[in-house]
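Tutorial, part two.
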Amino acid sequence: MSDHELWMTKALALAKQAGAQGEVPVGAILVKDDRVIGCGFNQSIENHDPTAHAEIIALREAGQTIENYRLVDSTLYVTLEPCAMCAMAMVHARIKTVVFATREPRTGAGGSLHQLLSHQGHNHQIEVIEGVLQKQSSDLLTEFFKMRRRK
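Running the prediction step on this input gives:
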């Protein structure tokens, strides 16, 4: 198992935790120097907060962990392609790399709908790696929404 797969497996465990709480199953882990500095899962419904995406929660925790809002040389692993809000927060935080599992064609800002992460117009570009454990993430999301439609 590659390092990317190892960290994405941990992000998927967080996504499952979100799904068990009735949230869209997305998990994120921020890693620097081979250690977790922040993690999160979707909590928008529970917290009544439209910004409580997995990525934002992980970024906030990481900032507190390293006591800096600049998260340089870090890698964010997330189970679903980031939206525009999350992508721009990552750009501002100076994340080095974003690894995501599956694309989000409706709101994805890592290449599906928009390319905000590595846009040349920004003062910081983020390396994007996609498709790590794509099937597992996609299956988790598909099953979640199937169950939701049944209710």
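The helical segments are 3-20, 44-47, 54-66, 84-93, 134-150. In part three we will examine how such features are distributed along the chain.
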